[in-house]
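[Meeting: bench + compute handoff]

Bench side (C.D.) handed over the final construct sequence. Compute side (W.E.) agreed to return the predicted structure before the next meeting so the bench team could plan truncations. Sequence as handed over:
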Amino acid sequence: MQKPVSPVERQTICVQAPARLHLGFLDLNGGLGRHFGSIGLAVDSHHTKLSLSDSDDQLTSDISVTDSSSQKITKLIKQFYLTLGANIPTDLRRVSLTIHSLIPEHAGLGSGTQLALVIGQILAKYHQLDIPTEKIALAMDRGKRSGIGISTFDTGGFVVDAGLGPNSQTPVRLFQQDFPSQWRLVMLMDKSHQGIHGQTEIQAFQQLPTFPLQHSQRICHLTLMQLLPALIEQDIQLFGSAVSEIQALIGQHFAPAQGGQYTSKAISILMEHCKSLGFTGMAQSSWGPTSCVFTESQSQADFLIDRLRGVIDSNPQLQDIELITTAGVNKGAGITIDDKTLHFNKQ
């Protein structure tokens, strides 16, 4: 454990982390001794951003914040000082946190992990402790299945991790690649619905049947020999085909818990319309409800959104769907200390 250093007086620290999309698991079967393994990327649609300054203990916000979010932040601060900051004297722990933005909760965008890592890093920087992101994640009880949010916090981009082995503490990152700057994602968000989370999520993993070994093998083959080469060669059609097939295999497995391929019935209707227009690369992130369609350009994304808005406007059941065009984020979380901005980008 590093020896804590007194914080610099009148220091203002700000940390901002992007949302992430979780596109599927490599191996839910676990037959080779490793479990999970994840595919995902950082996106620019939403961010968690907090700032810290020397002051009496207080939590303020520039946005409307639920009691649940406030309680989570308070709990994460306590968790930091119980673990990584246990040796820091009590009189040095009085700080003021301001919430500038939060990734939506239970939407499939990695809000919990990013909030935990932002708070962990902002307190570590304040106390002049150099703590790796993986260690913060472990102390904050993150990374039990997916390492996508941990990796995108450090590097951004498109990431694949190897999940957890018998001796793993957090998932091992296998691959990181910049997401093509011209590609766009059309995100579909259901404002009336939340993805499975908490105890319900734990029970779902426990109750679902064993994932077929041949499906895990197929997903790994698709990832290594189609998805990742297509990403590097920027072949959107091949990339989209691989995403769609991986999602179909994952969605089939989770369908009993989430009610079908997609958690949101409204999004399911719209994704079928995307398919009818010839689009591939359709995915639900994690438990949803947020889903996305990969497109090769801004103009193609605009075309798709225009068509989807036409469907939404004509169907009263779809009025709670929000459409967003976003891009990938190819750098790690940003940290600003007294107006000097840095990014993690640890390769």
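W.E. noted at the follow-up: The mean pLDDT is 93. C.D. will use this when planning the next construct.
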